[in-house]
Specification:
The chain is of the alpha/beta class and 321 residues long. It contains 11 helices and 12 strands. 32% of the residues lie in helices and 16% in strands. Helix 1 (12-22) runs parallel beside helix 11 and helix 5 packs across helix 7 (152-163).
Length: 321
C-alpha cells in the first residue's frame, strides 16, 4: 500500500512514526517541497500506484493519473476546491480534518463575543485616541447564543457558552435527537426562531449550494437590533451588500468576521470603515497543535480503512461536507 503526501507537515517524521505504528510496511512518499510546492517529478513517479492521497488541494490532472486511488484525505476541514464532477461522481472516499478546529475556533468566537460584550473594541479605540471613557457593560451571563450549523465546532461553542451561563439555541440541517448543552434545537426551516432570540448569532456553515448567500437582508431584519453576527464558517454564506446595509443602518448592532468571499479582504472593502465590525484574517482556526491533531484524525481513519469500515470524517461529496 502506498500513501502519497501532497501537503506540508511541520514534522514529517511525526507523521511517519504515527502511520508506521498502525502498519509498518506502508510505503509513504512525500512529494512536497519545503516551500509548499508539489515536487512534480515525485508526483508523476508515484501517483499511478498510490491508493491514498493526503492533500491540501487536488485537481483533475492528478485524479486522472491516480489509477489505484481509493481514498483522498484533505488536511483542512473545507473541501470545496476538491469537488470537481469526476471526483464527486467516483467511488473514491473523501475525508477531511474536521475535529482539528473546535478548540481554537471556539476560543476565537468567545474572544469576539467578549470583545463586544465587555466593550473592548471601544476601549481599544479610546486608547488609540488617549481618551478615558467609563461606560457600564452588561454581563455575558444570561445572554442567548444562536449557533447556525451545529457540527463539532458548534457543539464546542455550546459547551463553553453554557459555562458562561448562556442560553443556547442551535440550528442543524437534520434534527434527529437532542444535543448536549443546547436548550432549543431547530431544523433550517425554523431558523427564524433562532434569529429572533439570539444576542449573538454564530455562523458555523460550510459553503454549499444551499448555504451561499443564505444570510441576506431578510435574515438580518429577523435578528434583534442589539444582536451581533459572528462568522467563522465561510465568507460566501453572507450577502455582503446586505450585511453592510444592516450594519450601517443599525439593523443589527455589529459583526465579527473572520472569513470573507474574497481573501485577503481588499483594502478598499467598506468593512474596514465600520467601527461596529471586528475583522480578523481567517485566523480563528490557527493553532500550533494543527498538525498533531490532523495526523491523529488521519491515523484514526487509517485504522478503520484497513479494516474496511466507514471512516470517521468521511465527506458526502455531493453535499459538500
Amino acid at each position: 500500500m502506498k500513501i502519497l503526501v501532497l501537503d506540508d507537515f511541520d514534522d514529517f517524521s511525526e507523521f511517519d512514526k504515527s502511520v508506521r505504528k498502525i502498519k509498518n510496511d506502508i510505503d509513504i512518499v512525500y512529494a512536497i517541497e519545503k516551500n509548499g510546492e508539489i515536487d512534480k517529478i515525485k508526483l508523476d513517479k508515484n501517483i499511478e500506484g498510490s491508493e491514498i492521497l493526503i492533500v491540501g488541494d487536488f485537481n483533475k490532472e492528478i485524479f486522472k493519473k491516480a489509477k489505484k486511488l481509493k481514498w483522498v484525505h484533505c488536511t483542512s476541514a473545507g473541501v470545496n476546491s476538491l469537488l470537481f464532477p469526476e471526483f464527486v461522481n467516483s467511488k473514491i472516499i473523501l475525508t477531511n480534518s474536521r475535529g482539528v478546529h473546535p478548540i481554537p475556533i471556539t476560543e476565537h468566537v468567545f474572544a469576539a463575543i467578549l470583545c463586544f460584550q465587555r466593550r473592548f473594541r471601544d476601549h481599544i479605540l479610546n486608547q488609540t485616541r488617549r481618551e478615558w471613557k467609563y461606560e457600564w457593560s452588561e454581563e455575558l451571563h444570561g445572554k442567548t447564543i444562536g449557533i447556525v450549523g451545529v457540527g463539532e465546532i458548534g457543539k464546542r461553542v455550546a459547551e463553553i457558552g453554557k459555562a458562561f451561563g448562556c442560553y443556547i439555541i442551535g440550528v442543524k440541517r437534520t434534527v434527529e435527537s437532542k444535543i448536549e448543552n443546547i436548550d432549543e434545537l431547530y431544523s433550517v426551516k425554523d431558523i427564524d426562531k433562532l434569529l429572533e432570540k439570539g444576542d449573538y448569532v454564530v455562523l458555523c456553515l460550510p459553503s454549499t449550494e444551499k448555504t451561499r448567500n443564505m444570510f441576506d437582508i431578510e435574515k438580518f431584519r429577523k435578528m434583534k437590533k442589539d444582536s451581533v453576527l459572528i462568522n467563522i464558517g465561510r465568507g460566501d454564506v453572507i450577502k455582503d451588500e446586505d450585511l453592510l446595509k444592516a450594519l450601517k443602518e443599525k439593523i443589527i448592532s455589529g459583526a465579527a468576521l473572520d472569513v470573507f468571499r474574497e481573501e485577503p479582504l481588499p483594502k478598499e472593502s467598506p468593512y474596514y470603515d465600520l467601527e461596529n465590525v471586528l475583522i480578523t484574517p481567517h485566523h480563528s482556526g490557527s493553532t500550533l497543535k494543527y498538525d498533531e491533531r490532523s495526523i491523529k484524525i488521519f491515523c484514526e481513519n487509517l485504522k478503520l480503512f484497513l479494516k474496511g469500515k466507514k471512516l470517521k470524517t468521511e465527506v458526502n461529496k455531493k453535499e459538500g461536507y
